[in-house]
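Progress report, Aim 2. The chain analyzed during this reporting quarter is listed below.
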Amino acid sequence: MLQADRREHREQRRTLSVSLATHADDVRAAQALRYKVFAEEMGARLNSREPGLDIDLFDAWCDHLLVRDDDSNEVVGTYRILPPERARKLGTYYSDTEFDLTRLQHIKSRMVEVGRSCVHPDYRTGATISLLWSGLAAYMGRHGYEYLVGCASISMADGGHMAASIHRELKAQALSPVEWRVFPRCPLPLDALDTRQQAEIPPLIRGYLKAGAYVCGDPAWDPDFNTADVLILLPMSRINRRYAKHFLAAE
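Predicted structure tokens for the chain:
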């Protein structure tokens, strides 16, 4: 089991810790946070069987990484992690629903998928993000997995023009080799969008790129979340060691 890592956010006098969910109640707390962020804050349409929770078929197959406020025991950050053995039993990754992953077939046995990442609005600080990333790094290292993959979202609040412009920047900075290219099942119509806007890459994607990740092709449109999603692939062998203190914190 992933051992809890604790750090104090001194500015707000909060002590946070990271660990894997070990009980169904832990998972429900993560699902409640996801609902709060995705449905209530972002307006996503979630097809969940329980009000107030973000639940889908992948949850039961995943490990759930949690950051807690130790004073209140509240879950304030989460990542969902699908290891390759369980993806094989399930028969798919979540990313398969948005992209054709045929060109990644040869690495799937060593590939962990992450997703549904979110942080409570009161805890969107470097301390929370750092704990989530150190938890992911510990998970990858403990099991010897070699690739981290996941869908990273860009808002389409303006109809998609900013997403198209951000994608232009991503292609210029971090496009994957052709052998790792994926293809969106519901492509964002880039030709119909203005790609010339001043683009600011979202912080989470910027962090992945600084760590050494690739963007594996054109974005997909996710109508339920109203986002443009790009597939991020981070080979652990490419981790930028100058940036590693933000991603590979010691256990």
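The CA atoms of residues 65 and 136 lie 8 Å apart. Helices lie at 24-41, 84-90, 126-143, 161-174, 203-211, 244-247. These observations will guide the mutagenesis work planned for the next reporting period.
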